[in-house]
Amino acid sequence: MRNTISAALLGTALSLAMAGIAMAQDKTVKIGSLSDQSGLYADLGGPGSTLAAQMAAEDSGLMAKGWKIDIISGDHQNKPDIGSNIARQWFDVDKVDTIVDVPNSGVALAVNNIVKEKNGVYINSGAATSDLTNAQCSPNTVHWTYDTYMLAHSTGQAMVKAGGDSWFFLTADYAFGAALERDTTEVVKASGGKVVGGVKHPLNTADFSSFLLQAQSSKAKVIGLANAGGDTTNSIKQAAEFGIAKGGQKLAALLLFITDVKAIGLETAQGLSFTETFYWDLNDKTRDFSKKFAARMKNGAPPSMVQAGVYAGLIHYFKALEALGSNPHDGAKIVAKMKELPTDDPLFGQGKIEANGRKIHPGYLFEVKKPSESKAPWDFYKLAGTVPADQAFTPIEKSTCALLKK
Amino acid sequence: MSINLQALSAQLLVGLINGSFYALLSLGLAVIFGMLNIINFAHGAVYMMGAFAAYFLLNIAGIGYWPALILAPLAVGLFGMVMERTMLKWIANLDHLYGLLLTFGLALIIQGVFQNYFGSSGLPYAIPDALKGGMNLGFMFLPIYRGWVVIFSLVICIATWFLIERTRLGAYLRAATENPTLVRAFGINVPLMITLTYGLGVGLAALAGVLSAPINQVRPLMGADLIIVVFAVVVIGGMGSIMGSIITGFALGIIEGLTKYFYPEASNTVVFVLMVLVLLVKPSGLTGRAA
């Protein structure tokens, strides 16, 4: 009898110890890809971002080492309240560790607060606002792919240098448009140009003719498009219709994705110059990944820079987890590790994450090819210039992030 | 704010262009509601199908804009008639709500299928060569294509109105909705007329889709974004009134255009504010009959 009891006790002690080991060796990760799954940003993020996350999990090699990686997706419908609710539910009920993608700066900023409150990890690829690594920066956030500062300083500066010294803005009326207009205005003024006017249009506008007429009558040399996705493609298409270019005014597409160029068509888009941090046809590594990615996409599209950012961000995240040995379920700790490790992935090359959460890599100035120059279905860009990594993003000493004041 | 007369007239003209689309779409809705008593929520989806039909005709069959202007509405109209015969017919005698829910569900399915295959960014469709370019009107640069849209839609709207209100066929139709049993007693094939009417309404939406393809992107959700505004137009004009829907369509396009000039941030909401006001003052709409 005594033996049985002691055996039972021993068994309990052992199982408790085992449980303890299991806790310390927790190798489960749950990642939520939160995006616009069906609206105007769905093609540049959406289901493609979920696929990118899936591919990152497969390519990380962690699953062969006994890790269990779950990837789920959610549709924020470009509404901050819906995005916040999903994020809360993911952390509280579904025990999600990490949220990725989140295009739409309005939603991105709302989710940023929740991830911080719940001590999760936030690898934002889709949103543009530079506030994520400045006023709104958080120890739980990495802003991977691009931001409004980068766009303003590359495309904006290049336009002013080429003689476009008076600007009129068409701005999407929410956090992103405001941030992009603000950052570009700074660049234009700093380079000796001036802003003669602007108009704020609601998100997801089909008809831009009224706004374009106002831009036309402003006589500004450059019409800056501080909008994205479907809004940008409609602006560009209709600007061609209203003869903006023939009137001597230039369009500055501050943010343009490969999916947008596809939607506009090369006939209308040719000659546009803009900045991205990733293009599928940059080098062998990007081509190789893009081929595998496109084969798994329903419409055979190569990855957009946002989807590439989701992949690369997660590859780095998995490296940090591997270095930690197990998943501590402590977002700030994991992000600190991510900042500590230098980044190196096939899509963005070598780089680093600054203390404010800003991922640093080069920016590329592209020009859209003429229809005659395009040899393959997605062969759209030619490289016009490279902004080196150390100049592409906000210099760390200029960042207003509170994490830097210590 | 000082009002620049030139800019103002330009905005009025631009408003008229958008109004043409509102008018064509709300006209189709009014025809369907007036004759079939169905609130056709699939209207945005068939509008989108019209644009896609034009795209397919061009890219698969090499058929250009002009034939598409006839072929696409015919094809989509035919699709609508099949829809009416196989589904809508069975709920014709039930409450409005059933038709609304059925067509709403159909719209979601159609849009979902297109989105699955074509994504959300859309496809390009070029302006036909004959209508490229523009002319300088002094106060604005008018793309010829936009001018064409206004004139063509006006013609179509008036022709439809004439067909229903002033011809013998239209008289049969109107009689058939008042008292189908009696009209049938005169030897008129009422179910066939109803099917054709639904086809006509759907065809009008598809025509608007073809017209808009060169201006906007050919996108799966192009109709979903527009249909809410068009419903507001129909509510303001009065459900079922043909002339009312045409006039309100153009008028609201103009009001929206003016809002874009004076306070652009509100341009997406002004139509709904008007709708609320009209509903408070005259619930049956400006020209509508009591429901």
TrEMBL record, chain A:
InterPro entries: BCAA_transport, Leu-bd, Peripla_BP_I. Transmembrane segments: none annotated. Residues 28-369 form the Leucine-binding protein domain. SUPFAM superfamilies: Periplasmic binding protein-like I. GO terms for biological process: amino acid transport. Residues 1-24 form the signal peptide. The keyword Signal applies. Keywords: Amino-acid transport, Signal, Transport. The keyword Phosphoprotein does not apply. Belongs to the leucine-binding protein family. This is ABC transporter permease. It comes from Tardiphaga robiniae.
From TrEMBL, chain B:
This is ABC transporter permease. Its main location: membrane. The keyword Disulfide bond does not apply. One of its GO terms (cellular component) is plasma membrane. One of its GO terms (biological process) is amino acid transport. Signal peptide: none annotated. Belongs to the binding-protein-dependent transport system permease family. LivHM subfamily. Keywords: Amino-acid transport, Cell membrane, Membrane, Transmembrane, Transmembrane helix, Transport. Coiled coil: none annotated. The chain crosses the membrane at residues 12-33, 64-83, 95-114, 145-164, 185-207, 227-255, 262-281. It is a multi-pass membrane protein. It comes from Tardiphaga robiniae. It is found in: Cell membrane.
